[in-house]
Specification:
By secondary structure, this protein is α/β, with parallel strands linked by helices. The protein has a single domain, classed as TIM Barrel, CATH 3.20.20.70. Helices cover about 40% and strands about 20% of the residues. The protein has 11 helices and 10 strands. The strands form 2 sheets. The chain has an 8-stranded parallel beta barrel, surrounded by 7 helices. A two-stranded antiparallel ribbon has the order 6-7. The longest helix has 15 residues, at about 280-290. It is globular. About 50% of the residues are buried. Mean pLDDT is about 95; it is low at about 1-5. Bound molecules: magnesium ion. The site of magnesium ion has 5 residues, from loops.
């Protein structure tokens, strides 16, 4: 397959160390988390979601993010992404970043496409969550990139089918607020390729495809079909989780995050270049499975 110059590179954003581990039951030590991050980096992953500065009572699995960032030490050529939900947590991030020996120059902020999921996940309305993003944008250092996530872009576990017009409007708000990139998440993995296509089309009214990422779950085996739809619309950034870490909280036993190995194999077969080495990724996946006891 021949691709035009500059169009054949796809970025894989590794979310295993944060989104993945957060949804696993096993208790993982600071040293193990740092080791997994290094294993992903050794496989050539350049963009890794590493932790989350959230309320430790709500998300105990991520209470040690500051310690993990210190334990990572030096890490050449990798940018770490951490989740920051409020201005208060942004202050914590800034302090930890100042001590980090690697590039912690990107944060992720989250809003939901539905009111019910927003209340369940963030404890506030959609509007309030957008105000929180606005407050973060106001205070975030200029050299930090902000990746704005919208959860439940096709389906909500509480409200069912999601209106793509609503998602498009929220995508526009995140653009207006100054986010650098947008990431659309099919949080429960029920999105079908046709509906995913419609949702991305709506978001692309406000964003150029090169600024948009996708986060799919493989709950019903549609993740790769949805990746193809987004690729067809020019999207070149996809989240995935090494070893598929992170079950789906709403469907016990069902596969959760799209596995990085599956995404890499799929992209490579289609002729896309990612910079990720399949063999070393297999090593990282083996380590990840061992950590969570699979
Ligand atoms: Mg996920």
């Amino acid at each position: 397959m021949t691709a035009k110059a500059g169009q054949d590179h796809v970025e894989i954003v590794e979310v295993g160390p944060r989104d993945g581990l957060q949804n696993e039951k096993a208790v993982i030590s600071v040293a193990q988390k740092a080791e997994l991050i290094h294993a992903c980096a050794a496989a050539g992953q350049k963009s890794i979601e590493m932790g989350s500065f959230v309320n430790p009572e709500r998300v105990p699995q991520m209470a040690d993010t500051g310690a993990v960032m210190r334990a990572v030490g030096a890490l050449e050529g990798v940018r770490g992404i951490v989740l920051v939900p409020t201005v208060r947590r942004l202050q914590e991030y800034i302090l930890v970043r100042a001590q980090a020996q690697f590039d912690m120059g990107e944060i992720a902020v989250f809003v939901s496409a539905t009111e019910a999921f927003s209340q369940a996940n963030l404890g506030c309305s959609v509007d309030e969550s957008l105000s929180r993003v606005a407050a973060i944008m106001d205070k975030v250092p200029e050299d930090v990139a902000v990746r704005g996530y919208i959860s439940c872009v096709t389906d909500c576990p509480f409200e069912g089918l999601v209106d793509p017009v609503v998602v498009s409007a929220i995508a526009g708000r995140l653009q207006d607020l100054g986010c650098d990139t947008l990431a659309l998440a099919d949080t429960i993995g029920k999105g079908t390729p046709d509906r995913v296509g419609t949702v991305f089309e709506g978001a692309l009214k406000h964003w150029s495809p090169g600024q948009v990422g996708a986060h799919f779950h493989d709950t019903v085996g549609l993740a790769l079909a949805n990746v193809d739809v987004a690729l067809g619309q020019g999207v070149r950034s996809f989240d995935s989780s090494v070893a598929g870490l992170g079950g789906c909280p709403y469907a016990p036993g069902a596969p959760g995050n799209l596995a990085t190995e599956a995404l890499l194999a799929h992209l490579s077969a289609a002729g896309y270049e990612t910079g990720v080495d399949a063999e070393r990724l297999t090593d990282a996946a083996g380590m990840a499975r061992q950590m969570v006891g699979r």
